[in-house]
Amino acid sequence: MGPASPSGNGAIDALLLLTFGGPDGPDDVLPFLRNVTRGRGVPEARIAQVAEHYHRLGGRSPINDQSRELLAALRAELAPLPVYWGNRNWEPYLGAALAEMRADGVRRAAVFVPSVFATYSACRQYRENLAAGLAALPADGPGPELVKLRVFFDHPGFVEPMVERVAAGIERLPAAVRDEAHLLFVAHSVPRRQAVESGPDGGAYPAQLAAVSRAIVAAVAGPGGRERPWDVAYCSRSGPPTVPWLEPDVGDRIEQLAAAGARAVVIVPVGFVSDHMEVIQDLDRDALARAEKAGISAVRAGTVGAEPRFVRMVAELLAERGDPDRPRRSWAGLGPFPEVCPTDCCSAPTVEDRAPAAAGTPADARGRGRLLARAGAPAAGVGPPPA
Ligand SMILES: CC1=C(CCC(=O)O)c2cc3nc(cc4[nH]c(cc5[nH]c(cc1n2)c(C)c5CCC(=O)O)c(CCC(=O)O)c4C)C(CCC(=O)O)=C3C
Ligand SMILES: [Fe+2]
């Protein structure tokens, strides 16, 4: 039996791991990409380019195996709590997991989404998927009721292992340039407007990225306790060229750093939890090639994967939901992100009307009404970092 619920709705009796998903073989690539991009205005040329990236890996993304590894670690950590797994975009689909949970009599499940920061693609879109998945279940019983665990960019169970991975990355640089290593923190680019709308008050995505980056920089100080130079960049820009996305691009930034005289850079994939396709393609292939061409030493730091402290963090987030008095651990200085996403948190930037979203506030579950337009408000921090 899980911990008691703070809202008195009963105990949490299962965990659902909800992940992005990826193709398992060459025939899956195009149908998977159609699932991801449906209704999102991604140009055909971009889809073809990304299909090619997958085919270079034999048509198989590493991400499902990485999710299975995390699933096995979560099952070992949380036993006897049942742990289910579903993907947004490929088999095993979320809908099948919800159907299984219903059949097993699960009444109240916590949902863990291994996305580091709050923004529509990484938070609210998953809650919309949950609402759609629940709506598609046969009307043969109640539930499961779902609660989403908070985003974890600021949790020591994520930050500590990342600090170690950055330190190890610095050690892999040639000894002659190690001390001057520049740290370049990278997250997935998103449309600028999605960044403006992210979190309860807007601007959360770049703010969280900057906060955790600053915390890691302080923890891996250079010789004599001196902070290393650092900034943030983005990868995997998509969408039509007319729509502005977060910049700078990681490869462009590396070239700028080299031109400004930097001799070494550690690329830190702080916006990703495993070495999936986008890390392999956009960082290990493209960004490292740009660095080599620009004559700057570069390494890519590791991701957190299924490391024990990260797995224990999920157990801690679960326990939090059952105990209002339990301290909410947070490292990066922003304070813990709200546990229950407020109405309109991480609004969709591309649609006029809200889709219903589960695992948050009841107002979001209705899914009606115009989205809040926050553009113009806290746009600070959404855009290129100060030079
Ligand atoms: C913020 C964010 C994360 C990080 C948070 C998280 O981890 O959840 C993330 C992760 C991932 N993105 C992934 C793959 C893709 N993302 C795409 C497209 C897009 N991503 C977006 C955002 C994000 N994406 C956006 C705004 C789009 C444009 C279309 C739209 O508005 O939705 C496309 C379509 C082709 C293209 O346009 O590039 C693909 C194939 C994979 C799986 C990799 C694998 O297979 O190993 C993972 C983990
Ligand atoms: Fe993506």
From TrEMBL:
Cellular component per GO, a single term: cytoplasm
Pathway: Porphyrin-containing compound metabolism; protoheme biosynthesis
Origin: domain of life: Bacteria
A GO MF term: metal ion binding
NCBIfam families for this protein: hemH, PRK00035.2-1
Function as written in the Swiss-Prot or TrEMBL entry: Involved in coproporphyrin-dependent heme b biosynthesis. Catalyzes the insertion of ferrous iron into coproporphyrin III to form Fe-coproporphyrin III.
Protein name: Coproporphyrin III ferrochelatase
